[in-house]
Amino acid sequence: MSEPGSSSAPPLKDPKLGAMSKAFARVDLDGHDLPPSPTPSSPRGGRQYSIATQLVFSEGNDQFNASSVPIYQSATFKQSSATGGASDYDYTRSGNPTRTHLEKHLAKIMRAQRALVVSSGMGALDVLTRQLRPGDEVVTGDDLYGGTNRLLKYLSTHGGIIVHHVDTTTPEKVQEVLNGKTAMVLLETPTNPLIKIVDIPTIAKMAHAASPSCIVSVDNTMLSPLLQNPLEMGADVVYESGTKYLSGHHDLMAGVLAVNDEALGDKLYFTINASGCGLAPFDCWLLMRGIKTLKVRMDAQQNNAMLIAQFLESAGFKVRYPGLKSHPQYDLFQSMARGPGAVLSFETGDIQLSERIVESAKLWAISVSFGCVNSLISMPCRMSHASIDAKTRKERGVPEDLIRLCVGIEDGEDLLDDLRSALVQAGAMNVTLDGIYAKSATVGNEHPEEGERLAADAAAINEP
Ligand SMILES: Cc1ncc(COP(=O)(O)O)c(C=O)c1O
Ligand SMILES: N[C@@H](CCSC[C@H](N)C(=O)O)C(=O)O
């Protein structure tokens, strides 16, 4: 096995076409080999580059040493002979130089042997779950992104897959359902939208002991490879939505899969090529550009998120954010991650009050998604998690009044002022004479029927 991150592009399976090991070889205009790039690709003096450097520094220049990777906007590639010759690429669904460049870069920062990019985060989960066969069992959480829940429900209804939703924050609950037929464990941590933490190393160990061929996968969307590396904690696959932190500007959809096992990587690549969901060259270029600023964006977003979380907590709201010491799994989180990210949620005790708060904010856009430079506010039960029916949401303890904040890079004080104004305008806080704000919301969901009606409408739309 080669060093993590040094894997070459997905090898073309047709031997006539050869492997892609020559991708980005430096050649002159006549096709003669040039000496290696003047920029060293390995750490100087044995010192590992820090992640901030790795995000920016990418290997594999084209023959003109372009500073920004060229967009190979071509569906097909000329071959040297009818039998294929030694071409590196034949067709963009099977492989494209811009995509190869991005995948190599991602493998390095995700500390993986191989990374693969597809058209969305759900596309990545689809590729992964296509490795399942009827009768296989999947163990997953009871707090999950709505789209993940929807795909798993579809697979259990139409694909003969048995899906166990358990409280993955309690490893004993996972142990209860693991067995020799467990083909996959799908973990999300922190969970969306309740920001619960799952013990990746413990569950990975348990799963492999119960079922050695079980694929332990982790959705790392909430933190990105900057803050958490599940492959180093026993996971077999990491997948994430590149639509979020990795790209950072809400200008593209993308999904990433990363593995260390060569055979599993080949199976995932086969599925991507066979089903045709590989990421388009222009989107690869955009994602590559976004990744370079991941650290500066995340640093700013985390600082702002901590400010907002502390303010809401001090105002008396029940806040869910792993950066707060009051988070029930603060210590576990510290043992796995290098930062809390910038998504938090809080309850007001009243659905209509939450709605007024969300609609009173000006700087915070009412929008699904997260990880963007802009700050967003949403009500998960009506928006990102509306595809989970109201009964299930209630059973799983997702409060209908929950507000989710996805904190951006704006000035922290501006964000705070705007949120504070929205809370006051909505009637969630009182301004006292000495200028202190006090929470006036009552605890207890006052209008559950309203949330259930809206959710039922949304669920009907989302049913296959
Ligand atoms: C945790 C999580 N995983 C996966 C996805 C799916 O990503 P995408 O929207 O890129 O398909 C999302 C959001 O959509 C998400 O929040
Ligand atoms: N209508 C979409 C909702 C996407 S939610 C996006 C993101 N994961 C979030 O949590 O905000 C759908 O039905 O998938």
TrEMBL record:
<feature type="region of interest" description="Disordered">
    <location>
        <begin position="1"/>
        <end position="47"/>
    </location>
</feature>
<dbReference type="InterPro" id="IPR000277">
    <property type="entry name" value="Cys/Met-Metab_PyrdxlP-dep_enz"/>
</dbReference>
<comment type="pathway">
    <text>Amino-acid biosynthesis; L-methionine biosynthesis via de novo pathway; L-homocysteine from L-cystathionine: step 1/1.</text>
</comment>
<protein>
    <recommendedName>
        <fullName>Cystathionine beta-lyase</fullName>
        <ecNumber>4.4.1.13</ecNumber>
    </recommendedName>
</protein>
<keyword id="KW-0486">Methionine biosynthesis</keyword>
<keyword id="KW-0028">Amino-acid biosynthesis</keyword>
<dbReference type="InterPro" id="IPR015422">
    <property type="entry name" value="PyrdxlP-dep_Trfase_small"/>
</dbReference>
<dbReference type="GO" id="GO:0047804">
    <property type="term" value="F:cysteine-S-conjugate beta-lyase activity"/>
</dbReference>
<dbReference type="InterPro" id="IPR054542">
    <property type="entry name" value="Cys_met_metab_PP"/>
</dbReference>
<comment type="similarity">
    <text>Belongs to the trans-sulfuration enzymes family.</text>
</comment>
<feature type="region of interest" description="Disordered">
    <location>
        <begin position="444"/>
        <end position="464"/>
    </location>
</feature>
<dbReference type="InterPro" id="IPR006238">
    <property type="entry name" value="Cys_b_lyase_euk"/>
</dbReference>
<dbReference type="Pfam" id="PF01053">
    <property type="entry name" value="Cys_Met_Meta_PP"/>
</dbReference>
<dbReference type="GO" id="GO:0019346">
    <property type="term" value="P:transsulfuration"/>
</dbReference>
<keyword id="KW-0663">Pyridoxal phosphate</keyword>
<dbReference type="InterPro" id="IPR015421">
    <property type="entry name" value="PyrdxlP-dep_Trfase_major"/>
</dbReference>
<dbReference type="InterPro" id="IPR015424">
    <property type="entry name" value="PyrdxlP-dep_Trfase"/>
</dbReference>
<dbReference type="GO" id="GO:0005737">
    <property type="term" value="C:cytoplasm"/>
</dbReference>
<dbReference type="GO" id="GO:0071266">
    <property type="term" value="P:'de novo' L-methionine biosynthetic process"/>
</dbReference>
<feature type="compositionally biased region" description="Basic and acidic residues">
    <location>
        <begin position="446"/>
        <end position="455"/>
    </location>
</feature>
<keyword id="KW-0456">Lyase</keyword>
<dbReference type="GO" id="GO:0030170">
    <property type="term" value="F:pyridoxal phosphate binding"/>
</dbReference>
